[in-house]
Amino acid sequence: MVSFVRHAHSPYIPDAERSRGLSRRGRRDAARITAHLADVADVVATSPYKRARATVEGVSDAAGVPLVVDEDLRERELAGEHVEDFDTAVEHLWANPTASHPGGESHSEAQARGVAAVDRLVEAYPDRHVAVGTHGTLMALVFNAYDPRYGYEFWDGLSMPDVYEVTFVDDNPLSIVRTWVPPDERSDVGDRDPTAGVGDADGSDF
Known about the structure:
- This protein has helices spanning 24-37, 50-63, 86-95, 107-124, 136-146, 152-156, and strands spanning 2-6, 43-46, 67-69, 130-134, 162-169, 172-178, 203-205.
- It has 206 residues and is an alpha/beta fold.
- It has a single domain (2-205), classed as Rossmann fold, CATH 3.40.50.1240.
- Helix 2 (50-63) links the parallel strand 2 (43-46) and strand 3 (67-69).
- The two termini are 15 Å apart.
- Residues 182-206 are annotated as: Disordered.
């Protein structure tokens, strides 16, 4: 079982993808993520980016379990330099998975390394609950590899932070369930899941 954690709020700083940390709100929510996962996590893996690691390292400390840093859990590199029209640039990549912006990474490339990283974790820690600190786009791309209904709209609806639990059977993803409801969100778990209502009420089965 893998709980994917989209990092908590981090103020955007141009050209500081690896080093920008959490905002005050982000640090508050990271403590809530710790409370949410500390009792169930057997292993914590994380992107090397500061904002992702800061969101989940408290889980590792509270649970007394290993913290594994994996470069392949990093966010999709949008471009080599700051992009002014972020929304248009991102929509283009979702619509054209093999395309990339100058100096950036295509969605197909990011998806392949993300899935490979998760596969390694599932193989290395069978029958363990792994908490994975990562990023919104990479998480959505991994889910998209499991089920194409997880796409741009799903990514656009993610909260910061957000947590989705994926159950694997024989190393294959069986279900995806949202387990995190932000304190200020009144809606039900699973309401941002594009497949809610297809499987059970809280997520998708395939």
